[in-house]
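Case study 2.
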Amino acid sequence: MELVSATQGSPARSELSPVGPHSAGRPSFLGTVVAMPSAFLHPFAKPARESFIKIVRGDGAFVYDADGREYVDGMASLWYCAVGHGRAEIAEAIAKQAMTLAAYSTFDPFTNEPVEALAERLVGISPIPGARVFFTGSGSESVDTAMKLSRLAHVLNGQPQRTLIISRVRGYHGTAYGGTSAQGIAPNRENFGPLVSDVVQVPADDVEALASLMASRSNEIAAVLTEPLQGAAGVFPPHDGYLESLRRLCDQHGAHLIFDEVITGFGRLGSWFAANHYGVTPDLVTFAKAVTSGYQPLGGVFVGPAIRGPLEANPDYILRTGFTYSGHPTACAAAMANLDIFEREQLIDRVPHLGDRLADGLRSLAKDGQIDHVRGEGAVWAIGLRPDQDALAIRDRMLVNGVIVRATSADTNTFCPPLVATDAQIDRIVDAVDEATR
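Prediction:
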């Protein structure tokens, strides 16, 4: 596999095989690398790192590196490539739109046909009856927008004191300042200076702690923000009745309920949205990732009646938020082609089979004691490791065997395969876990 670096120089250790408490015997499969980092400063990586695997091509659930090595993409890249890689249909839709109208502002007084068509289509599958769609360029932008819209709606309703946003420990809500402030993953908040005020976290599954906080600050609460199934922290489904309790508490205290469905949206749990899957209706839903399967950056917020009402009450009111690429026509064309594939190939109907096959394989390893436990739902899963195991080492060993997974913490590896993955590819993921955990 090719390792990308800026120049040739003296050898140094690859950081895909780092030294750590469980690194003894770790395979040295990446060869000699150099000490000079490239011009590209990578996200969620060590800035001093000097080498990366160069991915050059994708086909279905496979991706290939510059040396021609094949990998099963067990993470759908970063939780998003639901329809698989190499879809000519989406590429052609992007090219056609780019040659017609690549981009244009949707700020007043402009619009375009792709954004209007996509908004209408998404409203048809929205988990919130009577919703409209506000478009962004990413999940992070979507979360920040949902937080702003909640606070704004309370102001327009004559309750400007309602600014408190409550999120959960383990929640991942992107890396813009609002989402960083709502992070329930503490290291992701550290060292960025003062964050957005009036944003607090409660323990992830503790309804009593949430109820107590809401009771003590009832008149200050704008919204409760949660991932229905917590994803990036390591795949934690909600406890039975938890989401229903959130809805009840929000209704009791006049707060909005925001579902962050950037990972769970568009079929990952076997329904269009986790809100459908769990039978709970929020007031705002953020989405991104699988809306285009990553072929173009696009995100958005479903804006329900509790927020629409105040925004639309005064016909002269101007909504002063948005992004340069809100409603980007080429991104919207990609989303339309992506949704065509979802529907034509009935990909959401495949989720129970795909998820069961992956979960059953992983559970067999837990039963044999090779890993501690398995958790997940639909087509997103994680393995919890024993104290003597290390997730980064397991990730590296799986790379040797041609399977990509994530190490989200020292004791967790996560799995989110494309919804087009075959039985053989799912079995290959499980076999790679088997080998890596022996």
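The two ends are 24 Å apart (CA to CA).
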